[in-house]
Amino acid sequence: MVWSRDFGIDETELSMLRRVYISVCCVMELEPQSEGGAEVGKMLFHLYQQGVRDELALIRMLTDR
Q1: Secondary structure (3-state) at 38
Q2: Where are the alpha helices (DSSP H) in 1-65?
């Protein structure tokens, strides 16, 4: 992921996004490098750009839980 360089995301935020991404892929039983994993990444980044910054909220939104 090159998010931090391209979008000015600091290491703390990047770590949180990685945790969310891995958690959501695990819950959804997706390989991170799969097409489904890529879709999760796109949705995660979109939510983050829209201002959702809470880790648990992101996980819930992406897993519908």
Answers
A1: helix
A2: 3-7, 11-27, 35-49, 55-63
Is 1 domain-assigned? no
Distance CA 38, CA 11 (A): 21
2 pLDDT higher than 80: no
Domain total of the chain = 1
Over residues 23-65, the pLDDT tens digits come to: 999 999 999 999 999 999 999 999 999 999 999 999 999 998 6
Residue 21's closest CA among 10, 50, 51, 47?
47
